[in-house]
Design goal:
With 381 residues, this protein is an alpha/beta fold. It is 27% helix and 27% strand.
Length: 381
């Protein structure tokens, strides 16, 4: 790799680790690295977590996602239930069962889900209707419930990791987009728009939808990341009191609805529309599709959409996470979280730090090959 020309006038700030991207992936990576390394967390936007993390309405579901995501989800559960003292001022989790509804054509998929998952119980549609009275009779031929799921306080989790970075002497540098990245004399350098250069022997790419772009700037082979747009909207379910309702969705994952702010429902068509990295905005067709699918299942007319938004969920080519070293010394990845970034965050940060520090990842060692970013090296080099 060709190093950038050295300029003696550069303002170089030396650290032990640089993390690019201050969403949940970057925040947890920096928090775990900061226990042993002075860490700088670089964020291009004016606030941390502006894109995907700040638009996530997350729920912890043990059986959701790829095999590696499920292992990381399970390993993160104890953190959500019992975070370190002082990590957050509010509980990180609130119990929220998840109900999978199967219209007649989705019954085989429901049976396969129950056979392959943990702690998924059959439940009758009548029992679901007792929990959520608006469920239309005849919509579901069968159903299943996961009682061990819970809502996650995304803002509190994210803020807790950022607080951990600062408490360990790390730096959160906002409005610091890395326009040049190069390796010189065993250190990675990231030059931001105001001419400041951050330097460290280790650089972690946690740039989410911009992960491949950061890699290209650094001269590192990209992974083939694909951002996908996900749409959500808020509707008023009055006169129903939905505060204690479970999350409801079909087995094929074409829609879901969950209580939001106690009195409202958040509805999504569970869309995955390919997108370039961007400040994602909702498409009116996706909003209409969400409302239509929701009304087919629940007797709640969508007369007005109170709020709508979209975010990007970024996937690797095989939809597994990318955590660990690249083919270039000192350059690490923490990308490709897809829809699992919040629920896997505590364990993912722990794994990333162990790999950077060349430590035994203990209970996570079995998934190291599954999340190794180098599995894409030949295809996208």
């Amino acid at each position: 790799m060709r190093a950038a020309p050295h300029d003696g006038r550069m303002d170089i700030q030396a650290f032990d680790a640089l993390v690019i991207g201050a969403g949940i992936g970057g925040a947890t990576a920096a928090a775990h690295l900061a226990t042993t390394r002075r860490t700088a967390l670089l964020e291009a936007e004016e606030s941390a977590g502006y894109h995907t993390t700040g638009r996530s309405a997350a729920i912890w579901i043990l059986n959701y996602g790829t095999p590696d995501a499920q292992v990381l989800t399970a390993a993160s559960g104890s953190f959500f239930r019992n975070p370190p003292p002082g990590f957050a001022d509010v509980p990180l989790m609130t119990p929220r069962p998840v109900v999978h509804l199967a219209p007649p054509e989705q019954v085989p998929a429901l049976e396969a889900m129950m056979a392959g998952g943990e702690e998924i119980e059959p439940i009758t549609p009548e029992a679901v209707r007792a929990m959520a009275p608006a469920l239309r009779p005849g919509y579901a031929a069968a159903a299943a419930i996961q009682r061990n799921a819970f809502d996650m306080d995304v803002a509190a989790l994210h803020a807790g990791f950022l607080r951990t970075v600062r408490a360990a002497g790390g730096v959160l540098a906002l409005r610091q987009r890395a326009g040049r990245i190069w390796q010189e004399a065993g250190r990675w350098h990231a030059e931001t728009g105001d001419g400041t250069v951050f330097a460290a022997p280790v650089l972690v790419n946690a740039a989410g939808a911009w992960g491949d772009e950061v890699a290209r700037i650094a001269g590192v082979a990209p992974l083939g990341l694909q951002p996908k747009r996900r749409t959500a909207l808020i509707v008023d379910p009055a006169p129903h009191d939905v505060s204690a309702w479970p999350l409801l969705g079909d087995v094929a994952h074409t829609w879901y609805a969950r209580p939001e702010a106690r009195a409202k429902l958040m509805v999504s068509p569970a869309d995955e529309t390919d997108s370039d990295p961007c400040d994602a905005q909702p498409d009116e067709l996706d909003v209409a599709v969400a409302a239509d699918r929701f009304e087919q299942a629940l007797d709640i007319p969508v007369r007005r959409v109170e709020h709508r938004w979209a975010g990007l969920r970024t996937f690797t080519p095989d939809r597994g996470l990318a955590i660990g070293p690249s083919g270039t010394p000192g350059f690490f990845w923490n990308c490709g979280q897809g829809g699992y970034g919040i629920q896997t965050a505590p364990a993912a940060g722990q794994l990333l730090a162990a790999l950077v520090n060349e430590e035994d990842p203990e209970g996570l060692r079995d998934i190291v090959p599954l999340v190794d970013p180098r599995r894409f090296a030949k295809e996208f080099a």
